[in-house]
Amino acid sequence: MLPGMADVPAFATPYMDPAHVARAVSIADGLERNAAITHGYHDLSEAVAAILGRDHANWLTFGKWASAEARASIAGQTVPLPLRHMMAHQVSQAVAQGNAAIFGDIAPPLIVFVNAYRDGRDRPLGSQERADRRAALLAHPSISRTDDLRLAFSAYADAVDLLAAGNPDPRRLAERVFFGNVAVAAHEQALADPFIRAAIPGR
């Protein structure tokens, strides 16, 4: 970490701007785009962790790892050498497109979540205010579009409520964050499946 970075707010990232996310996923070069996306996963993971805490990884933490792992496929390095001239481009394109599609899909609702609760670090939110924010969060078009996303962000909001109450049951908090992560993963799997199939040569 660079000197002084510990004092930089978790929310001080251009990836909190959906327009910046859109620009990142539209970068023409696949490897450059992947680097921007992986950076975005990191920054947004930090922003979510500032709200949900660091005891349990949020979905973006796993997204950052998966995006970093995808880099080798985008670079054409995961296809066996004798087959690279035939299949590397197909695999690279499918993984690169999936990498961009997934980040472009899930970053905006997570930005909405962070914006809904970011000021809770600086002042306690009353129960009615939390209830109002939960209702607005789950009604947001980027979240209300699928059952899995509504379930995911309801679980993350539950985690916020547990933390707000003070001294939360660690098991209950872990369960709510885990459930949110799994529900996001279920939503994204449906989007990822066509890219995964395209990245499997001779499927």
Radius of gyration: 18 Å
Shape: elongated
- What structural class do helix, strand and pairing data support? mainly alpha
Beta-strand share of residues: under 5%
Please work out how many helical segments DSSP would assign: 8
Mean pLDDT: 87
For this entry, give a set of tags.
mainly alpha, 8 helices, 0% strand, 203 residues, single chain
What do these coordinates show?
This protein is mainly alpha-helical and 203 residues long. The chain has one domain (12-198). It is built from eight helices and no strands. It has helices at residues 18-25, 30-52, 59-74, 84-117, 127-139, 141-144, 147-165, 170-198. Helix 2 (30-52) packs antiparallel against helix 3 (59-74) and helix 5 (127-139) runs antiparallel to helix 7 (147-165). The radius of gyration is 18 Å and the shape is elongated.
Give a short summary of the structure.
It is built from eight helices and no strands. The chain has helices spanning 18-25, 30-52, 59-74, 84-117, 127-139, 141-144, 147-165, 170-198.
